[in-house]
């Protein structure tokens, strides 16, 4: 029992296991500290970017509002239409519709029937379903 030591009636390993365990604990603590600092840095960067975005939006709003205000000052109040009684009393002339209407179709009924018959002969099959 070279590596064991008696302390107050108990047995304790005094070898490399305690030192290895302590080293592993320290490494784990460093690892978690590293992760924690990474999260904090990421959150700070997000907050900075959000603040910059908010400032940019506010700046654009102020710029837009000041530009609108300047435009209103520079331009007169706008054109206001005015009507007089004579505008409504004049006779309105409408265009007349054409006296001769064009025919809706250039084919007469015999030509249409002949065309249908020719198509039917060319197709060769009657695909109409009848009861």
Q: Descriptors for this entry?
A:
about 130 residues; 2 strands; about 5% strand
Structure commentary:
The chain has a domain of 56 residues. The protein is built from three helices and two strands. By secondary structure, it is mainly α. β1 and β2 form a beta hairpin. The protein has a two-stranded antiparallel sheet. It is flat and about 115 Å long. It starts with a strand and ends in an 8-residue tail after the last helix.
Write the layout of secondary structure elements.
Elements: E1 4-7, E2 10-13, H1 16-74, H2 85-89, H3 109-123
Antiparallel strand pairs: 1-2
Region (Disordered): 1-26, 61-80, 105-131
GO biological process, one term: regulation of systemic acquired resistance
Keywords: Nucleus
Order of helices and strands: EEHHH
As a percent range, the share of helical residues equals 55-70%
Largest sheet: 2 strands, antiparallel
Which strands sit side by side, in order, in the main sheet? 1-2
Shape: flat
The fraction of residues assigned to DSSP E strands is: 5-15%
Q: Compute the average pLDDT.
A: 78
- What's the gyration radius in Å? 48 Å
Distance between the termini: 108 Å
Derived from helix and strand composition plus strand pairing, the structural class reads mainly alpha
Structure annotation, total helices: 3
> Any low-confidence stretches, pLDDT <50, length ≥5?
1-11
Pfam family, one: NPR1_interact
Main location: nucleus
Keywords: Nucleus
Biased composition (Basic and acidic residues): 17-26, 65-74, 110-131
């Amino acid at each position: 029992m070279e590596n064991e030591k008696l302390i107050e009636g108990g047995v304790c390993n005094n070898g490399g296991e305690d030192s290895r365990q302590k080293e592993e604990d320290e490494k784990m603590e460093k690892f978690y500290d590293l992760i924690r600092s990474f999260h904090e840095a990421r959150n700070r960067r997000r907050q900075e970017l959000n603040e910059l975005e908010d400032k940019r939006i506010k700046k654009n709003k102020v710029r837009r509002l000041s530009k609108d205000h300047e435009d209103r000052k520079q331009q007169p109040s706008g054109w206001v239409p005015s009507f007089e009684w004579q505008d409504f009393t004049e006779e309105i002339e409408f265009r007349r519709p054409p006296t001769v209407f064009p025919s809706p179709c250039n084919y007469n009924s015999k030509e249409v029937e002949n065309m249908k018959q020719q198509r039917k002969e060319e197709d060769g099959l009657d695909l109409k379903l009848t009861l």
